[in-house]
Design a protein that fits this description.
It contains nine helices and no strands. The protein has 213 residues and is mostly helical.
């Protein structure tokens, strides 16, 4: 039987907190909140004897998954580029053209400072700690994958636009599925970084950037 406090904890961390940040009367920088949440979640995981710490990195499965990851990314990138050309052509590569140095810095730091912390919270932590809530009766990983994607999407309320919500829910499904299949936060974060860096490059990063708040 799931521990009784887990549903309340889940609602506080993954519903109440992002909603509070979205509707706070002042703007709160998202990265410090993300890093603090990462430290909190990591401390819980490291104290949990049932958690397999190797999942926090574990790059070995990438070799077997790389072809599928790149094929799906190529198809998705083509669709996103076409959509940007059709509906937001002035934004196409605007970030790269306007500030190439800052774009290069984002490409280097975004996977480390943003992608991996998000993966630790919304994949490693959420899918391990709340597995009893979503897995106990279903006998399938589908519900925990949906919960991970929904929580990941809801966190992006802080960027105050529907595109961020929709894209992160779809991405969240993919990244949670990849983590569940491989047991590798490295592989899931690698895939997440591909999409995130592409969105910044193509010009859609403004929908996921703190200055857009």
């Amino acid at each position: 039987m799931p521990r009784l406090y887990l549903p309340l904890e889940f609602l506080i961390l993954f519903v109440a907190l992002p909603v509070s940040l979205r509707y706070a009367p002042w703007r709160i920088p998202p990265l410090p909140v993300l890093w603090a949440a990462t430290a909190f979640c990591l401390s819980i995981l490291l104290r949990d004897p049932t958690f397999d710490r190797s999942q926090l990195w574990n790059p070995a499965p990438l070799r077997g998954e790389l072809a599928n990851i790149l094929l799906l990314f190529g198809l998705s990138a083509a669709a996103l580029a076409a959509g940007t050309c059709l509906f937001a052509r002035p934004m196409l590569f605007a970030f790269v053209r306007a500030t190439p140095g800052f774009w290069a810095l984002v490409m280097l730091l975004y996977p480390v400072l943003s992608v991996y912390p998000q993966g630790l919270i919304y994949r490693a932590f959420l899918m391990h700690r709340y597995q009893p809530l979503f897995h106990a009766h279903a006998g399938s990983p589908l519900l925990i994958i949906l919960a991970s994607a929904a929580a990941f999407s809801l966190m992006h309320l802080i960027f105050r636009n529907p595109l961020a919500i929709v894209l992160t829910f779809l991405g969240g499904l993919l990244f949670a599925y990849r983590y569940q299949q491989t047991g590798s936060l490295f592989v899931s974060s690698f895939e997440h970084a591909l999409y995130g860096c592409f969105l910044f490059t193509i010009g859609l990063g403004r929908y996921f950037y703190a200055r857009s708040l």
